[in-house]
Specification:
Elements lengths: L8 E5 L4 H16 L3 E6 L1 H5 L12 E5 L23 H9 L2 H10 L3 E6 L6 H7 L3 E6 L3 H7 L2 H6 L25 H8 L7 H11 L2 E4 L3 H15 L3 E3 L11 H4 L3 H9 L6 E5 L8 H14 L3 E5 L18 H4 L4 E5 L4 H6 L3 E6 L3 H9 L4 E3 L7 H10 L3 E3 L11 H12 L5 H9 L1 H5 L1 H16 L9
Parallel strand pairs: 1-2, 1-4, 2-3, 4-5, 5-6, 6-7, 8-9, 8-11, 9-10, 11-12, 12-13
Helix pairs in contact: 6-10, 13-18
Length: 468
């Protein structure tokens, strides 16, 4: 921040999911480095999960903890989507909406706040901000393609797409060749996490009121989608870059399993291991988990699989979601990890040559940042299906074929897809393309250039009538 530039007071208000919380923290750190004062607002448990700040940023970032209000149906202690099965996420949205009172109180006491950078959920925020002369930035952690698929606010609030089937074709406003559409089972699955206020209503309402739409994207990857967004929204569309994560220097110490994992990976040849991770929120049925495991086993290739046991109906935890005897049969060739895995550490290891992913945008960015081709197995929620279609069309990954209606698939197709991406000659173009985009997806310099432009845009934004 140069001498003539006034310090801005900015609130960051992400949705309660790890995949949202971390990109919001990255942007917070950048703005704090530029000399602006950041109030990062979330619930106590989510804030406690954040990595420690570098000492030089502590004076410019304040973490504001708002206790999550109680809502009937939300299990005690659940403060993020990773604490819940998908059908309980609507209760988390209800609790999040009840943060309005506490946030309003905070803003009353913090009269210098001029910007709130928010997520998709707080549809009640516009009148709160307008009353206090605060400008809103909608920061979407999704790809620009996903956001372009959603369409203009009029479409989101009362458009032609009313049934799940309506989302299974590419919309007319995407005026470039594309394959962006959901499978029917993905739309039906996502409806489970919708509250009485739908996600479309939340997004549409916020788009009408924000001054700027910022996205985790860049022109080098999504030029067409960003152009369409400018056309349909008629307001500043500012990509923030891909926000590639950096490896924390202390991660080795934090995860005592890493030494054993590293030793196992060191014993494998370069680019021979594929990593499997379905994210913190995707929960497959027992039948699907067994079919996936069977496909992984049939591939005959070395793998690491981060398996997360998920809470199911009535709070019962399924202790083991893998087929009986699976680990014994793949012993030596496969390594099964229970719970959390140091994903970045695994992806950077030279023996890892591919990633079987649930298609979360963060995971895709991480993998392509290391030049790894993708075995695309999207979960049936959020934008995962659209990310899979996008990466498949860019020929940096191969989507495992599934039944459009119920999401079923065969272990043979899983094994076939893994082998094509990892070793088969016909997968060579995928491996070459993934390697070629590594420089874009890993470039901190490129991301910082976009973040610089975003910072300037809010610093130089014309004052509202209330401020003049």
């Amino acid at each position: 921040m140069d001498g003539s530039q006034k310090q801005l007071h900015i609130v960051m208000f992400p949705w309660l999911a790890y995949g949202h919380i971390m990109p919001f923290l990255q942007v917070s750190k950048f703005l704090a480095q530029k000399g602006h004062k950041i109030y990062y607002i979330s619930t106590p448990k989510n804030i406690s999960r954040l990595p420690k700040l570098p000492p030089d940023l502590c004076s410019n970032i304040s973490f504001i903890q708002l206790p999550l209000p109680h809502v009937h149906g939300l299990p005690p202690g659940a403060e993020s989507t990773s604490d819940l099965p998908i059908h309980q996420v609507p209760y988390l949205k209800k609790a999040y909406d009840k943060l309005e009172t506490q946030l309003t109180e905070f803003l009353k006491k913090s009269s210098q706040v001029k910007w709130i950078i928010h997520d998709f959920a707080p549809y009640w925020l516009p009148p709160v901000a307008t009353q206090r002369g605060i400008n809103l930035v909608y920061f979407s952690i999704y790809s620009a393609s996903t956001f372009a698929f959603l369409g203009p606010p009029s479409e989101l609030l009362n458009g032609s797409r009313q049934r799940p089937e309506d989302f299974t074709v590419a919309p007319v406003w995407l005026d470039y060749p594309n394959n962006l559409a959901f499978k029917l089972h993905e739309m039906v699955g996502h409806q489970e996490c919708m509250d009485s206020v739908s996600d479309f209503e939340r997004v549409g309402t916020l788009l009408l009121s924000c001054k700027i739409l910022a996205l985790r994207s860049c022109y080098e990857v999504e030029a067409d989608a960003l152009r369409v967004l400018s056309k349909i929204h008629q307001k500043p569309i500012i990509p923030l870059g891909l926000l590639p994560p950096s490896l924390p220097s202390n991660e080795d110490k934090e995860n005592e399993n890493w030494e054993a994992m590293k030793k196992w990976l060191d014993s494998k040849r370069d680019k021979t291991v594929f990593y499997v991770a379905l994210g913190s929120e995707v929960s497959l049925s027992q039948e699907f988990m067994h079919e996936l495991a069977s496909g992984i086993e049939k591939s005959g290739l070395p793998f690491i699989w981060a398996v997360r046991n998920r809470p199911l109906v009535e709070g019962q935890l399924v202790q083991d979601v893998l087929p009986s005897g699976f680990e014994e049969r793949v012993s030596g060739r496969g390594l099964v990890l229970r719970g959390w895995a140091p994903q970045l550490r695994v992806l950077t290891h030279s023996s890892v040559g591919g990633f079987l992913t649930h298609c979360g945008w963060s995971s895709v960015i991480e993998a392509l940042g290391y030049g790894l081709p993708l075995i695309l197995f999207p979960g049936a929620s959020s934008d995962l299906g659209l990310v899979a279609r996008l990466m498949h069309s860019k020929k940096v990954g191969l989507e495992i074929e599934r039944n459009d209606l119920d999401g079923s698939f065969t272990s043979d197709l899983v094994a076939e897809s893994i082998k094509r991406v990892m070793v088969d000659p016909e997968g060579e173009p995928l491996r070459a393309n993934a390697s070629a985009v590594k420089e874009i997806f890993s470039s901190v310099e490129l991301s910082n250039k976009y973040l610089d432009e975003f910072t300037r845009s809010i610093e130089e934004f014309p004052p509202s009538d209330a401020e003049v």
